[in-house]
Amino acid sequence: MFSLKFGEWMPGMTFANRMKSTRVWSLLSLASLVILLASVFPAKTYAQGNDILFRSALFDDVFGTDDFVNDPFTAPGSSGWITHLGGDGPGTRPFTELGGLVPIYTPNGAWLFQGSGRITNDGKGGTSLVTTRRFIVGDFIIGGYGSYDITQSRNNNTFHQLGIGGEVLTNGLWSLRGSAVFPVGPQTQNVSSGMGALGTVYYQGNNLLVDGINTLQNDDVALRNISLEVARGLGDWSGEAFVGYYNLQGPGCGSTDGFQVGVRGYITPSLKGNVAVSDDPLFGTNVFGGFTFFFGGTGGRAPETLYDMLTLPVERTNQQVAIKNVQSGTFVPGTVVLTDGGVPITITHVNNNAMGLNLGTFEDPFQTLPATQPTDIVLLHHDSVFSNQSYTLDPGQRLLGEGDGNENSVFTDQFGNINLPSTDGGTGVRPTITAPFAQYAVYGASNTEVANIVIDNLGNTFRGGMMYDGMNANFNHVVIDGGLSGMEINNGTGLYAFNDVHFIDQSEGTISISGGSADYTFDATSTIDEGATPFYVGGHTGSITYDGTINADSQGLQFFDADGTYTFNGQFTNVGNNAGIDIGGGSSGTFTFVNTDITRTAGGSVINIADHDTGTVNFGPNSSIAATDGVGLRFNNADGTYNFESPIALNGGDAGIDIIGGSDGTFTFSGPTNITNSTGIAVNIDGGMAGQNANVRFTDLLIHQSVGDGVRAVNTDSVFIGFGGMGTNSIENFTGSGIFLDGINNFTLDNTTITNNGGGMFTINAANSNLSGSGNTAMPFSSNDGGGNTGTIQFNGGANTAP
Fold this sequence. Notes:
mainly beta, twelve-stranded antiparallel barrel, 3 domains, single chain, Porin
């Protein structure tokens, strides 16, 4: 509790100064500790003649006055205490304090030596030393004191103050107290310094300037504190109500008057409490209060006589230095060229509505997109239209457009990030670029940014939006409309970040990513709408995280040799006639589709996964997969892990589930899987002549009115229907077998109804199957549903002994 941050190294402090500071703290701490230890030994009284003598633990005998003879055994002595004060006072903070007091009695009163150490709730230290002289004058105690306090601010600045005070005390009636404390040493100590742009930022030539600088100063200021208090006793209770006035003054704070009211008194003979409310213009209204517990001697206890009050600790509300954090600024006029890294920021201006010398300056902008410029920024002015033009970025360059209320910011050495000044008054529209035939509108480079432009290629059916390679790129508030391709990225590395980027109606592919290990992020405001192949990803590691929306009406997502991590958190809707999602070409990545809706009305597979070596494919419960034509879900040589929590509804055509071609993966369908009116096999798990080690699990499978077999499992490992005893499964109304098994290692059926199958409930080539290790017997299968209803189990090439 008494551990303080003594001798803390301050910025700019020399070693000698630090040692001096350490000695001061150490001496004050030692003095406080001596007073505290002395206080735990009470002053003793004993008789000698007609006088009462007092013996202190540290001092020689002194004689009391005749008044003490009237009440010889209630004379107070030394004391120790612990205080906790909660709430902020005027310039002060909550603290916990450990203190002590030692009296020296005189014939007409006493000397008091008081010391304490404290720690604030934010871990800062402080200490106080107080010397008091009190006189008994009739029915009054008149006293005066001097004080020395040290306080650390929240910002680790240390302040010192000296104080004087006076008091007039009565036993339970009126009391008057006054004090004045004055900071000594530096009254203002710096916390931080900086600059802020309160002037006007403007363009001149190819530079960015400001017409003045506002210097910002953040300081801690120690305040002079003068206070006056009047208190009145509260009847028989050992307490008083008080009202006070105080004045605070310091550099940058002016002079502030405040008022304070409160109550203090003893709850028990050793426990004192207080609460107060203060108000002033500088610190506002504050409520604070706390408790003090006295120990170790007779001093500090609830007083019963005037003499008991003689050695009560001095009531002080300013034992902490009042500190105000002051922030100020000084405007210094004058033109300043803004810099980044000590180099002036350079800007090329382009405005096709301008007339002039065509120099690329603010005063004479280029009127068409120029060749690659060496400047930091190429700024396209609002309402510009650049037809049949393109621009190639220099590494590290930014291509920025004005308009549509979007701001562009720039980092400056002087002020950090600031917004570029606008030339449109906030009313213009962002610039538009239309690429030349067979070209892209923008050719990128490493560490570049494209922001707040529209690329309109509706009439350009060859090439399109942007082509990039290299490392790191940012795209903000960009619209790419039409064209053959929205964006082509080759061998990208680092981070490509897309924020509020919109791709509309590309005819061949929206985003093509070939090679590289870059990470791609798309925020929730980004969109892909009405385009073909929203993503083509080939030969890529790294990651794609897409939080926006996708509305595709043709080919869906395509991944080939994709070995990264691909997460689609936003809404993906595909209603086209080709494959919704293609994963193949030796891909081993992890694919997660959180909110994906695919509806196929004709054409290819809803999902086609082929030659997927390892990795995982996850469809979340908020997704849905549906088809009314095509071939449904197809897995060919798929060796990964495939989890479908989403509902699956396949209705019509040959739409079903095919797991073929030597697929050795694990396939889990935990969402409801509904296959209706399939013209082929509803669930076809066929390893062919070579066989496969597929492990297939259905929790909730419904197959209805298919022409072929319901579930066909040939030369494969394991099939579980009703996995874990969960879900309701049904296979009905097939012209073929409900379940056809041939060369399967493990087959489990639970919670499943099989009805009206022209080919029988089961067709089992038992000679090629391991039926729970029982060879050619039919023991694992029962045609009795427990209610006396029986069906047909047909064994080809094996025993036909159904129980």
